[in-house]
From TrEMBL:
The keyword Nucleotide-binding applies. It comes from the Bacteria. This is MinD/ParA family protein. The lineage of its organism: Bacteria, Bacillati, Bacillota, Bacilli, Bacillales. It comes from Brevibacillus ruminantium. CDD domains: FlhG-like.
Amino acid sequence: MHDQAKRLRERMQQNQPSRQTRLVTVTSGKGGVGKSNFSLNFALALRERGHKAILFDVDLGLANLDVLMGITPKRNLLHLLEAETSVWDILEKGPGDLEFIAGGSGFTQILQLDTAKLDLLFHKLDPLYGYADAIIFDTGAGISQESLRFMLSSDEVILVTTPEPPAITDAYAVIKMIHSRNPQTKVRLVINRATSDQEGRATSEKLAAVAKRFLDMDVSKLGYVMDDHLVTKAVKQQRPYFLVYPQSQASRSIRNLADVYLGSSDESMGSSGGFKGFLTKLKGLIR
Ligand SMILES: Nc1ncnc2c1ncn2[C@@H]1O[C@H](COP(=O)(O)OP(=O)(O)OP(=O)(O)O)[C@@H](O)[C@H]1O
Ligand SMILES: [Mg+2]
Protein backbone atom coordinates (compact mmCIF):
# COMPACT_ATOMS: atom_id res chain seq x y z
CA MET A 1 0.00 0.00 0.00
CA HIS A 2 2.78 2.31 1.00
CA ASP A 3 4.76 1.48 -2.15
CA GLN A 4 1.69 1.93 -4.29
CA ALA A 5 1.05 5.39 -2.86
CA LYS A 6 4.69 6.22 -3.39
CA ARG A 7 4.66 5.15 -7.02
CA LEU A 8 1.43 7.04 -7.64
CA ARG A 9 2.91 10.17 -6.15
CA GLU A 10 6.08 9.86 -8.19
CA ARG A 11 4.05 9.41 -11.34
CA MET A 12 1.83 12.37 -10.52
CA GLN A 13 4.88 14.45 -9.96
CA GLN A 14 6.35 13.49 -13.30
CA ASN A 15 3.15 14.54 -15.09
CA GLN A 16 2.94 17.87 -13.36
CA PRO A 17 4.25 21.02 -14.94
CA SER A 18 7.28 22.18 -13.03
CA ARG A 19 6.53 24.95 -10.56
CA GLN A 20 8.65 27.86 -9.46
CA THR A 21 9.31 26.99 -5.85
CA ARG A 22 9.86 29.69 -3.29
CA LEU A 23 11.86 28.83 -0.20
CA VAL A 24 10.40 30.93 2.59
CA THR A 25 11.82 31.20 6.11
CA VAL A 26 9.44 32.33 8.85
CA THR A 27 11.27 33.87 11.77
CA SER A 28 11.05 36.40 14.61
CA GLY A 29 13.29 38.20 17.07
CA LYS A 30 11.31 37.49 20.20
CA GLY A 31 10.00 34.00 20.84
CA GLY A 32 6.35 33.09 21.23
CA VAL A 33 5.02 35.79 18.88
CA GLY A 34 3.10 33.24 16.79
CA LYS A 35 5.52 32.00 14.09
CA SER A 36 4.35 28.38 14.16
CA ASN A 37 0.67 29.28 14.18
CA PHE A 38 1.31 31.72 11.37
CA SER A 39 3.32 29.21 9.26
CA LEU A 40 0.72 26.49 9.66
CA ASN A 41 -2.36 28.57 8.93
CA PHE A 42 -0.67 30.60 6.20
CA ALA A 43 0.28 27.34 4.42
CA LEU A 44 -3.36 26.22 4.69
CA ALA A 45 -4.62 29.57 3.37
CA LEU A 46 -2.26 29.30 0.40
CA ARG A 47 -3.48 25.78 -0.27
CA GLU A 48 -7.10 26.98 -0.17
CA ARG A 49 -6.12 29.25 -3.07
CA GLY A 50 -4.67 26.32 -4.99
CA HIS A 51 -1.08 27.19 -4.15
CA LYS A 52 0.85 24.10 -3.09
CA ALA A 53 2.63 25.07 0.11
CA ILE A 54 4.65 22.51 2.06
CA LEU A 55 5.42 23.10 5.70
CA PHE A 56 8.88 22.27 7.02
CA ASP A 57 9.59 22.26 10.74
CA VAL A 58 13.13 23.48 11.31
CA ASP A 59 12.63 24.70 14.86
CA LEU A 60 16.11 24.10 16.19
CA GLY A 61 15.56 21.52 18.89
CA LEU A 62 12.01 22.26 19.94
CA ALA A 63 9.87 21.22 17.02
CA ASN A 64 6.21 21.78 17.82
CA LEU A 65 4.27 22.12 14.58
CA ASP A 66 3.20 18.49 14.95
CA VAL A 67 1.68 19.33 18.35
CA LEU A 68 -0.28 22.22 16.79
CA MET A 69 -1.61 19.81 14.17
CA GLY A 70 -2.26 16.99 16.62
CA ILE A 71 -0.19 14.50 14.65
CA THR A 72 2.79 12.29 15.48
CA PRO A 73 5.14 12.22 12.50
CA LYS A 74 6.41 8.74 11.66
CA ARG A 75 9.46 9.96 9.79
CA ASN A 76 11.62 13.05 9.81
CA LEU A 77 14.33 14.68 7.77
CA LEU A 78 17.10 12.53 9.22
CA HIS A 79 15.47 9.40 7.76
CA LEU A 80 16.61 10.68 4.37
CA LEU A 81 20.09 9.51 5.29
CA GLU A 82 18.84 5.93 4.95
CA ALA A 83 19.63 4.64 1.47
CA GLU A 84 16.11 3.40 0.66
CA THR A 85 14.21 6.47 1.93
CA SER A 86 13.05 9.10 -0.56
CA VAL A 87 11.57 12.53 0.10
CA TRP A 88 8.08 11.16 -0.61
CA ASP A 89 8.50 8.76 2.32
CA ILE A 90 9.10 11.58 4.80
CA LEU A 91 6.36 13.88 3.47
CA GLU A 92 3.62 13.55 6.09
CA LYS A 93 -0.03 14.47 5.58
CA GLY A 94 -1.43 16.83 8.19
CA PRO A 95 -4.93 18.29 8.67
CA GLY A 96 -6.49 19.76 5.53
CA ASP A 97 -4.16 17.50 3.51
CA LEU A 98 -1.30 19.82 4.34
CA GLU A 99 2.02 18.27 3.38
CA PHE A 100 4.55 18.52 6.14
CA ILE A 101 8.16 17.54 6.90
CA ALA A 102 9.26 17.09 10.50
CA GLY A 103 12.70 18.35 11.42
CA GLY A 104 13.24 15.56 13.90
CA SER A 105 15.60 16.03 16.77
CA GLY A 106 16.64 19.43 15.54
CA PHE A 107 18.36 21.12 12.68
CA THR A 108 21.48 21.85 14.70
CA GLN A 109 22.34 18.19 14.34
CA ILE A 110 21.73 18.35 10.62
CA LEU A 111 23.95 21.37 10.14
CA GLN A 112 26.73 19.45 11.90
CA LEU A 113 26.64 16.56 9.42
CA ASP A 114 29.68 16.12 7.23
CA THR A 115 29.55 17.51 3.71
CA ALA A 116 28.83 14.16 2.05
CA LYS A 117 25.79 13.53 4.27
CA LEU A 118 24.58 17.11 3.91
CA ASP A 119 24.88 16.78 0.13
CA LEU A 120 22.95 13.50 0.17
CA LEU A 121 20.21 15.02 2.31
CA PHE A 122 19.70 18.06 0.13
CA HIS A 123 20.05 16.02 -3.04
CA LYS A 124 17.16 13.90 -1.80
CA LEU A 125 15.10 17.02 -1.06
CA ASP A 126 15.57 18.25 -4.60
CA PRO A 127 12.42 16.61 -6.10
CA LEU A 128 10.36 18.97 -3.92
CA TYR A 129 11.68 21.78 -6.04
CA GLY A 130 9.23 22.01 -8.91
CA TYR A 131 6.62 19.96 -7.00
CA ALA A 132 5.68 22.67 -4.49
CA ASP A 133 4.93 26.35 -5.04
CA ALA A 134 6.32 27.27 -1.66
CA ILE A 135 8.28 25.53 1.05
CA ILE A 136 7.72 27.27 4.33
CA PHE A 137 10.39 26.78 6.99
CA ASP A 138 9.19 27.44 10.52
CA THR A 139 12.22 28.36 12.65
CA GLY A 140 12.61 28.48 16.41
CA ALA A 141 12.72 31.35 18.87
CA GLY A 142 15.68 33.65 19.10
CA ILE A 143 18.29 34.75 16.61
CA SER A 144 20.72 31.85 16.42
CA GLN A 145 23.51 31.52 13.88
CA GLU A 146 21.61 28.56 12.44
CA SER A 147 18.42 30.45 11.79
CA LEU A 148 20.37 33.40 10.40
CA ARG A 149 22.02 31.04 7.91
CA PHE A 150 18.62 29.74 6.97
CA MET A 151 17.30 33.24 6.40
CA LEU A 152 20.26 34.25 4.26
CA SER A 153 19.94 31.12 2.11
CA SER A 154 16.20 31.29 1.38
CA ASP A 155 14.39 33.28 -1.30
CA GLU A 156 12.53 35.37 1.22
CA VAL A 157 12.14 35.88 4.95
CA ILE A 158 8.82 36.45 6.66
CA LEU A 159 9.53 38.28 9.89
CA VAL A 160 6.75 37.95 12.48
CA THR A 161 6.26 40.35 15.37
CA THR A 162 3.45 41.40 17.66
CA PRO A 163 2.67 45.11 18.14
CA GLU A 164 4.38 45.06 21.56
CA PRO A 165 7.53 47.19 21.84
CA PRO A 166 9.88 44.38 23.04
CA ALA A 167 8.86 42.22 20.07
CA ILE A 168 9.26 45.15 17.65
CA THR A 169 12.72 45.97 19.05
CA ASP A 170 13.81 42.35 18.59
CA ALA A 171 12.36 42.26 15.08
CA TYR A 172 14.41 45.33 14.23
CA ALA A 173 17.51 43.56 15.60
CA VAL A 174 16.83 40.72 13.12
CA ILE A 175 16.52 43.21 10.26
CA LYS A 176 19.84 44.75 11.31
CA MET A 177 21.55 41.35 11.41
CA ILE A 178 20.22 40.40 7.99
CA HIS A 179 21.22 43.80 6.63
CA SER A 180 24.77 43.45 7.91
CA ARG A 181 25.17 40.07 6.20
CA ASN A 182 23.17 40.55 3.00
CA PRO A 183 21.11 43.72 2.47
CA GLN A 184 19.60 42.17 -0.70
CA THR A 185 17.63 39.61 1.35
CA LYS A 186 13.87 39.97 0.80
CA VAL A 187 12.26 40.62 4.16
CA ARG A 188 8.49 40.82 4.55
CA LEU A 189 6.77 41.85 7.76
CA VAL A 190 3.80 40.19 9.41
CA ILE A 191 2.24 41.74 12.49
CA ASN A 192 0.55 39.04 14.54
CA ARG A 193 -2.02 39.66 17.28
CA ALA A 194 -3.07 43.11 16.06
CA THR A 195 -5.99 44.43 18.13
CA SER A 196 -7.27 46.60 15.27
CA ASP A 197 -6.66 47.12 11.53
CA GLN A 198 -5.16 50.45 12.40
CA GLU A 199 -2.70 48.92 14.87
CA GLY A 200 -1.70 46.22 12.36
CA ARG A 201 -1.03 48.73 9.62
CA ALA A 202 0.66 51.35 11.83
CA THR A 203 3.05 48.81 13.40
CA SER A 204 4.35 47.53 10.08
CA GLU A 205 4.57 51.04 8.63
CA LYS A 206 6.62 52.21 11.60
CA LEU A 207 9.01 49.26 11.48
CA ALA A 208 9.47 49.51 7.70
CA ALA A 209 10.09 53.27 8.03
CA VAL A 210 12.77 52.73 10.68
CA ALA A 211 14.53 50.13 8.51
CA LYS A 212 14.47 52.52 5.58
CA ARG A 213 15.66 55.51 7.58
CA PHE A 214 18.49 53.90 9.56
CA LEU A 215 19.58 51.08 7.25
CA ASP A 216 18.27 52.26 3.88
CA MET A 217 16.73 48.80 3.62
CA ASP A 218 13.41 48.15 1.87
CA VAL A 219 11.33 45.86 4.02
CA SER A 220 7.90 45.05 2.59
CA LYS A 221 4.66 44.85 4.54
CA LEU A 222 2.84 41.58 4.00
CA GLY A 223 0.03 42.33 6.43
CA TYR A 224 -1.29 41.50 9.86
CA VAL A 225 -3.24 38.80 11.68
CA MET A 226 -5.81 39.82 14.26
CA ASP A 227 -5.51 38.89 17.91
CA ASP A 228 -8.26 36.33 18.33
CA HIS A 229 -9.23 34.16 21.30
CA LEU A 230 -10.22 31.41 18.86
CA VAL A 231 -6.52 30.94 18.07
CA THR A 232 -5.84 29.85 21.67
CA LYS A 233 -8.95 27.69 21.56
CA ALA A 234 -7.74 25.95 18.39
CA VAL A 235 -4.24 25.48 19.88
CA LYS A 236 -5.82 23.68 22.84
CA GLN A 237 -7.80 21.49 20.44
CA GLN A 238 -4.56 20.79 18.53
CA ARG A 239 -6.22 21.84 15.30
CA PRO A 240 -5.28 24.73 12.96
CA TYR A 241 -7.60 27.70 13.48
CA PHE A 242 -7.93 28.14 9.74
CA LEU A 243 -9.70 24.78 9.56
CA VAL A 244 -11.77 24.76 12.77
CA TYR A 245 -12.72 28.44 12.74
CA PRO A 246 -12.53 29.42 9.07
CA GLN A 247 -14.65 32.54 9.58
CA SER A 248 -12.79 33.79 12.67
CA GLN A 249 -11.06 37.16 12.56
CA ALA A 250 -7.66 35.44 12.53
CA SER A 251 -8.65 33.22 9.58
CA ARG A 252 -10.07 36.12 7.63
CA SER A 253 -6.93 38.17 8.14
CA ILE A 254 -4.64 35.32 7.15
CA ARG A 255 -6.72 34.78 4.01
CA ASN A 256 -6.21 38.47 3.10
CA LEU A 257 -2.54 38.11 3.78
CA ALA A 258 -2.29 35.03 1.55
CA ASP A 259 -3.94 37.01 -1.25
CA VAL A 260 -1.41 39.82 -0.85
CA TYR A 261 1.37 37.25 -0.92
CA LEU A 262 0.05 35.58 -4.07
CA GLY A 263 -0.49 38.91 -5.76
CA SER A 264 3.05 40.00 -5.08
CA SER A 265 4.97 37.23 -6.87
CA ASP A 266 7.40 38.47 -9.43
CA GLU A 267 9.95 36.87 -11.75
CA SER A 268 12.79 37.34 -9.31
CA MET A 269 11.00 35.12 -6.80
CA GLY A 270 11.80 31.44 -6.61
CA SER A 271 14.79 31.78 -8.85
CA SER A 272 17.60 31.14 -6.43
CA GLY A 273 18.43 27.72 -7.86
CA GLY A 274 16.26 25.50 -5.69
CA PHE A 275 17.70 23.31 -2.99
CA LYS A 276 21.04 23.19 -4.76
CA GLY A 277 21.30 26.98 -4.61
CA PHE A 278 20.01 26.93 -1.07
CA LEU A 279 22.53 24.31 -0.02
CA THR A 280 25.41 26.07 -1.76
CA LYS A 281 24.62 29.25 0.14
CA LEU A 282 24.03 27.39 3.39
CA LYS A 283 27.30 25.50 3.13
CA GLY A 284 29.14 28.69 2.29
CA LEU A 285 27.78 30.22 5.47
CA ILE A 286 28.60 27.20 7.63
CA ARG A 287 32.20 26.75 6.61
N1 LIG B 1 -3.39 35.68 16.25
C1 LIG B 1 -3.36 35.25 17.52
N2 LIG B 1 -4.34 35.60 18.39
C2 LIG B 1 -4.32 35.18 19.68
N3 LIG B 1 -3.36 34.40 20.19
C3 LIG B 1 -2.35 34.02 19.39
C4 LIG B 1 -2.29 34.42 18.01
N4 LIG B 1 -1.16 33.88 17.46
C5 LIG B 1 -0.55 33.20 18.45
N5 LIG B 1 -1.25 33.28 19.61
C6 LIG B 1 -0.90 32.67 20.91
O1 LIG B 1 0.49 32.65 21.04
C7 LIG B 1 0.94 31.34 21.39
C8 LIG B 1 2.30 31.08 20.80
O2 LIG B 1 2.19 30.90 19.42
P1 LIG B 1 3.28 30.07 18.58
O3 LIG B 1 3.60 28.80 19.23
O4 LIG B 1 2.77 30.04 17.18
O5 LIG B 1 4.52 31.06 18.70
P2 LIG B 1 6.01 30.84 18.17
O6 LIG B 1 6.51 32.17 17.74
O7 LIG B 1 6.03 29.76 17.16
O8 LIG B 1 6.75 30.36 19.49
P3 LIG B 1 8.28 29.83 19.59
O9 LIG B 1 9.13 31.05 19.49
O10 LIG B 1 8.33 29.18 20.92
O11 LIG B 1 8.49 28.90 18.43
C9 LIG B 1 -0.16 30.42 20.89
O12 LIG B 1 -0.21 29.24 21.62
C10 LIG B 1 -1.41 31.24 21.04
O13 LIG B 1 -1.92 31.07 22.34
MG1 LIG C 1 7.23 27.99 17.06
